[in-house]
C-alpha cells in the first residue's frame, strides 16, 4: 500500500512540475513577444526590460529555457549596440560608450566571439571620437587616455595612434611621439595616413630645431633639423635651420650642402638661404662664391650683414 502511494505522489509532483514549467515557458514567450512589439514602437528601454523578464524566467527553468534565454539576451545585446551606434553618429561619445558597455555584458552572456569583436571595434571608434573632441579642446592628457582605450579595444586602429602622435607632439614628449608614429606605420600601409603622421613628426622636430637655435644650442638644432628632414624632405625651413646650425658649428661643407638643397626648393624668398650659403663658402675660404651668394641676399635681416 505504501509503495503504491509513493508512486502516485511521485507521478503527481512530476505532472505538477511539468505544468508549472510549461506555464513559466509560456510566460517567458509572452514577455519575448511583448519585447518585439515594444522594439518595433521604438520603445527601446521598455523592450530591453521585457526581454530581460523573459531571460529571468528562462533562467529558472534550467535547460528547458536555455534556448529562449540566449535569444532574449542576444536581442538585448543588439538593442544596446544600436543605441550606442546612434549615440556615436550623434557624436555623443560618452553615451555611446555607456551603451556599448551594457552591450558588452550581454556579449559575455551569449558567448559569441563575433559579437564581441564587432563591439570592440565600436568601442574603439567611440573612444577615438572622444579623443579627437578632447584634442580640439587642448585637453591633451585626457585625449591620450581616450586614444589609449581605443588602441586597447582595437590594437590595429591607425587613427588611435595618429591621435596619440598629435597629443605627444603638443606636449613635447619626444619618446612617446616616436613610438606613436612607429605604431601607425606598423598597423597600416595607407600612404595618406603615413604621410600625415610623418608630417606631424617633421613639424615637431622643426619646431624643436627653431627653439634650439633661439637658445644657441646648435648641436641640438642640427640634430632636430636632420630628424625633421628624415620625416619630410620638402620643407626648405628645415634645410635653412640645418645650414645655419652647421655654419655656427664650423661644419661649412655640410652647411653648403644643406643651403644648396634648400635653394633648389620652391619658396617665396631665398635670401636667408643664400646668406647661409655665403657663410659656408666664406668659412671654407672661397671668397668668390661667398660674394656671389651674398649678392643674392636682397631682403630680410641679413641684407645689411
Could you characterize the architecture of this molecule?
This protein has 305 residues and is mainly alpha-helical. It has helices at residues 2-40, 44-60, 63-89, 93-110, 113-136, 140-153, 158-170, 174-187, 191-214, 218-231, 236-249, 252-264, 271-283, 287-294. Helix 1 runs parallel beside helix 3 (63-89) and helix 9 (191-214) packs antiparallel against helix 10 (218-231). It is rod-shaped. Mean pLDDT is 90; it is low at 1-20.
Q: State the end-to-end CA separation.
A: 126 Å
Calculate Rg over CA atoms: 34 Å
Which class of secondary structure composition applies to the elements?
mainly alpha
The overall strand count is 0
H/E series: HHHHHHHHHHHHHH
- Uncertain runs are 1-20
Helix content estimate: over 70%
- Mean of residue pLDDT? 90
Inertia-based shape: rod-shaped
Helix count, per DSSP?
A: 14
- The portion of residues forming beta strands comes to under 5%
**What is the subunit arrangement here?**
single chain
The largest pleated sheet is described as: none
Amino acid at each position: 500500500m505504501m509503495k503504491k502511494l509513493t508512486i502516485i505522489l511521485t507521478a503527481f509532483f512530476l505532472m505538477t512540475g511539468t505544468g508549472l514549467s510549461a506555464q513559466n515557458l509560456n510566460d517567458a514567450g509572452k514577455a519575448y513577444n511583448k519585447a518585439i512589439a515594444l522594439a518595433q514602437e521604438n520603445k527601446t528601454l521598455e523592450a530591453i526590460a521585457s526581454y530581460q523578464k523573459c531571460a529571468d524566467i528562462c533562467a529558472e527553468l534550467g535547460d528547458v529555457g536555455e534556448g529562449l534565454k540566449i535569444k532574449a539576451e542576444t536581442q538585448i545585446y543588439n538593442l544596446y549596440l544600436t543605441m550606442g551606434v546612434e549615440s556615436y553618429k550623434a557624436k555623443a561619445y560618452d553615451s555611446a560608450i555607456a551603451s556599448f558597455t551594457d552591450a558588452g555584458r550581454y556579449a559575455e552572456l551569449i558567448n559569441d566571439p563575433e559579437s564581441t569583436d564587432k563591439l570592440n571595434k565600436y568601442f574603439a571608434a567611440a573612444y577615438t571620437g572622444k579623443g579627437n573632441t578632447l584634442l580640439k579642446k587642448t585637453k591633451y592628457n585626457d585625449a591620450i587616455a581616450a586614444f589609449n582605450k581605443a588602441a586597447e579595444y582595437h590594437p590595429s586602429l591607425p587613427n588611435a595612434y595618429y591621435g596619440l602622435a598629435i597629443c605627444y607632439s603638443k606636449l613635447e614628449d619626444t619618446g612617446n611621439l616616436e613610438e606613436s608614429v612607429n605604431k601607425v606605420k606598423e598597423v597600416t600601409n595607407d600612404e595618406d595616413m603615413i604621410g600625415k603622421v610623418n608630417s606631424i613628426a617633421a613639424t615637431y622636430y622643426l619646431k624643436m630645431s627653431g627653439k634650439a637655435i633661439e637658445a644657441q644650442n646648435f648641436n641640438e638644432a642640427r640634430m632636430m633639423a636632420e630628424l625633421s628632414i628624415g620625416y619630410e624632405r620638402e620643407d626648405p625651413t628645415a634645410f635653412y635651420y640645418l645650414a645655419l646650425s652647421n655654419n655656427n658649428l664650423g661644419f661649412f661643407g655640410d652647411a653648403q650642402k644643406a643651403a644648396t638643397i634648400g635653394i633648389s626648393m620652391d619658396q617665396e624668398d631665398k635670401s636667408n638661404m643664400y646668406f647661409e650659403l655665403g657663410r659656408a663658402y666664406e668659412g671654407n675660404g672661397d671668397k668668390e662664391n661667398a660674394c656671389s651668394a651674398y649678392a643674392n641676399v636682397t631682403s630680410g635681416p641679413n641684407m645689411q650683414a
